[in-house]
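Re: beginner question about structure tokens

> Can someone show what the tokenized structure looks like for a real chain? I only ever see the sequence side.

Sure, here's an example I had lying around. Input first:
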Amino acid sequence: MKGLDTNVLVRYLTQDDPKQARAAAKEIEGAADHGEKLMIQPFVLCELVWVLESAYRFPKTDILTALDQIMRTAQFEIAEKETAWSALGDYSREKGDFADYYIGRANTKAGAETTLTFDQSLKGSKLFTVIKE
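And the corresponding structure tokens:
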């Protein structure tokens, strides 16, 4: 098994650098052809969302579709997949970032009763307690 870095997924999804996009496709599609799994860590998904939002200005609906497809692709082995699925559901319904919801879900799974934050966009989420300044 090989792991994927965020930049490989970005090139594969955006096709913005033809040379790197071809190389990413060769690796990803080659692994699929050989029945090999590719490991994706949750922080890679968090980085991917951040890059697609900030650098590429993808709308949230496109990012949700991309994450859903990545999570459903059999050749991708997603670490902590259940937590990532839960975070994806939160991200699709609420105002915060995917990374925030992943952090909140991971903390809850680890036994935390809440995750403290200053992020007002997380107000109302059952995972977070927004600290008043």
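Each token stands for a local structural state, so reading them left to right follows the chain. The mean pLDDT is 96.
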